[in-house]
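To: structure desk
From: M.T.
Subject: fold request, one chain
Message: Could you run this one when you get a chance? Sequence is below, nothing fancy, just the single chain.
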Amino acid sequence: MLKSARKQEKDPEGRMPLAEHLRELRNRLLKSVLAIGVVTAVAMLYYKDIAHFITGPVIESVGCPRGTPAGTPPGHPCAQITAQGMLAPFTILLKVSLTTGVVIASPVWLYQLWAFLAPGLHNTEKKYALSFVAAGVPLFLGGAYLAYAVLPTTAAALVGLTPSEWSNLFPADEFLDIVTRMVVVFGLAFELPLLLILLNFGGVITGRRVLSWWRFMVLGITIFSALATPTGDPLTMGLLAAPIVLLYFGAVGVCLFNDRRRRRANPDRELDDDEASQLDLTPESIDGLDPATGHRMLPEQSTGDTPPRRNGYDDAT
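Reply: Done. Structure tokens follow.
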């Protein structure tokens, strides 16, 4: 059932009918869903450990001591994570387990996506695509880890706004939504430099153009950091904006290096279609002359079997 459609009919260029493409897509999706389902089922067995791993740093940062109501001691507000409703623990179990399954099974479904798209790519495109995937996964994981690291600081800044006479409760489902949103936003933000490099390698933009955007990019990254972080405090904004700015200038360096490499291989690559290339009109030195040998064309020089000309004609007429 899950047998690849390409094994049934091989084509050197990866071409196949539409029905075969749909069958191939179905098989790839089934394999991905099966991998996510298996990891999700295993994650359910360790649900409490995973939930403690997610909420542990926040509880250590702003959690109330055991037996102490939320909001005490005075002047130092704290918070408690609660599950509201009889079905809330079960829904949280499903959410945590499914999220864990998608993250841990990512190598499987990423490979299935790559295996579906690879036959339609050229060899050079495959090489670039593999490089970008290999660089994109660590960048996304780095952004996700940064979000996890700044989460206690974010929670402390938010809880610090609570008046001392109030109690602060964190619904577990809302808390997990915030964590998921921050992880996704931080991870995708770290993919921005990779996107610029991809456009440069594809010949869409040049390194000089990317460098000319640095003022707008720094301003845009700062605004994005202010909107992406729930607190909006300068510390959390700086922790998100500073790595992205550094990665942006690193991407600029890679684009400039790639442009220089292309110019060495083809100096006329960056010219427009209606722009003339520069010609090298420098005269070259002549080492020696080759003697020219020609045929005798004059009547008086004709010899051999050729009849003589009369008054410039071949015959007597």
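Reply (cont.): The chain has a mean pLDDT of 76. Let me know if you need anything else for the meeting.
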